[in-house]
Amino acid sequence: MRQLCSNLSSCRRNKVLVCGVGFAFLAIFSAFGAASQATESVLEETRKEKGSSFMVSGYVSLAIVYAACAIFNWISPTIVSFVKPKYAMFVGSVTYVFFLTAFFEPIAWLIYFASAVLGCGAAILWTAQGVYITACSTATNLNRNFGIFWIIFTISNLLGGAFNYFLLSNVISITSHSRYLLYGVFTAICTVGCVFLLMLPLPKMEMQDTSESDSTVPLQNNQDSAISVRSTIAKSFHLCLSPCMLAILLATCFTGINLAFYSGVYGTCLGRMQVFGEKAKSYIGLSGIFVGVGEIVGGQLTAVGGNRIRPTFIMMFGFLTAILSAISTFLMVPPEAPIKETSATGFIEPSVYLAMVIGTLLGLNDSLWNTQISALIGKIYPTNADSVATAAAFALFKFIQSVTSAIAFFYSSVLLLHWQLLIFMIFAILGISGFLYADRRSTSSLSVNITTTIPM
């Protein structure tokens, strides 16, 4: 009985820790998410102020962020193994503050440098986050914990989008005064999230195999198992030999393309559609609010139904929302909207209501895909089997997601919308196929022994 009470107490404590990580990320990404939505528009107005000598693209800035994140993901597992996950998350979060401060008085080289630094920090932050939440979980509540985190985390889209909407209402151009206000508030909020991460305690539970009870196991000191960068990279490549991991990474490619589309391209398209009149810029923020609504609904579906609904059913629903959002965008938004201001319309009359429905669908499918892929990685590579393998698996997840996001941001500045949506739909089909394969392979075993020659 005493052991049972102790187990329940640890479960409650670790649930609180998951919520704590969620609230810290809520603060950080309320700021960064809103900044990402407005980046291209802010820099476009800055170019008008400073003249043709100021050649900085918001798309390129975000592409550098994700490219740097992809490269640094090979090193981030080593950093997380040497440093406790909460300290690694703190170090990563500080780079977001640095990035935001670069926009107070935009200078080309500083913005691109800050973008690269942020990419490195993001790799550390997200790798550590995956390890931390997995260490707070058991096999039976892993889906729930990632769902809880995602619900709290994705409220950031609501807060950031709401701020952009109210500040940019009836604003035709973003002046330097508006820029100072935007990034001053963003920086302050992001700093609060950094401090919150630093205050988090360590989890007291590692994920257990379902053949065992949900009894708690003391979290091992990662410093004892810290390995070299060379060994980490070797282990990451070793994981890539697994058909299961390759299938997961195929699904991950779509999450990267979707991330670039909803966080950078879609809002920019709405802001450049002259048919929406003087409120067009404010719809950048409003679409972010509805993306947040979709993210929260998706997280709630995972948290509440994660143990009742099979992951394959949840992912199929996410796939359908992705296809529906792509088709609706194709019909409503003119092809040139990602590249320049346009007075053209799509195949159907543009509607603010339809635009917000599309935003909701984009947020919903992003939430469902990310939570299910994260939970599947945590199930196949649990911390009690090999904590470094867990970190390497999440690093691979973020590596591929970041690479595809970087590529998507680069081509977003040159490709017309219909070509971007074609790529979007192709990878959605490939992604759902990869996830279904990996989920089916994982049902026969909850963990993979990565020390074998060919895992899985």
Automatic annotation (TrEMBL):
<dbReference type="InterPro" id="IPR051617">
    <property type="entry name" value="UNC-93-like_regulator"/>
</dbReference>
<dbReference type="Pfam" id="PF05978">
    <property type="entry name" value="UNC-93"/>
</dbReference>
<feature type="transmembrane region" description="Helical">
    <location>
        <begin position="390"/>
        <end position="411"/>
    </location>
</feature>
<dbReference type="GO" id="GO:0016020">
    <property type="term" value="C:membrane"/>
</dbReference>
<keyword id="KW-0472">Membrane</keyword>
<keyword id="KW-0812">Transmembrane</keyword>
<keyword id="KW-0325">Glycoprotein</keyword>
<feature type="transmembrane region" description="Helical">
    <location>
        <begin position="239"/>
        <end position="262"/>
    </location>
</feature>
<feature type="transmembrane region" description="Helical">
    <location>
        <begin position="147"/>
        <end position="168"/>
    </location>
</feature>
<feature type="transmembrane region" description="Helical">
    <location>
        <begin position="180"/>
        <end position="200"/>
    </location>
</feature>
<protein>
    <recommendedName>
        <fullName>UNC93-like protein MFSD11</fullName>
    </recommendedName>
</protein>
<dbReference type="InterPro" id="IPR036259">
    <property type="entry name" value="MFS_trans_sf"/>
</dbReference>
<feature type="transmembrane region" description="Helical">
    <location>
        <begin position="417"/>
        <end position="438"/>
    </location>
</feature>
<feature type="transmembrane region" description="Helical">
    <location>
        <begin position="54"/>
        <end position="75"/>
    </location>
</feature>
<feature type="transmembrane region" description="Helical">
    <location>
        <begin position="313"/>
        <end position="332"/>
    </location>
</feature>
<feature type="transmembrane region" description="Helical">
    <location>
        <begin position="282"/>
        <end position="301"/>
    </location>
</feature>
<feature type="transmembrane region" description="Helical">
    <location>
        <begin position="87"/>
        <end position="104"/>
    </location>
</feature>
<feature type="transmembrane region" description="Helical">
    <location>
        <begin position="352"/>
        <end position="369"/>
    </location>
</feature>
<keyword id="KW-1133">Transmembrane helix</keyword>
<feature type="transmembrane region" description="Helical">
    <location>
        <begin position="110"/>
        <end position="135"/>
    </location>
</feature>
<dbReference type="InterPro" id="IPR010291">
    <property type="entry name" value="Ion_channel_UNC-93"/>
</dbReference>
<comment type="similarity">
    <text>Belongs to the unc-93 family.</text>
</comment>
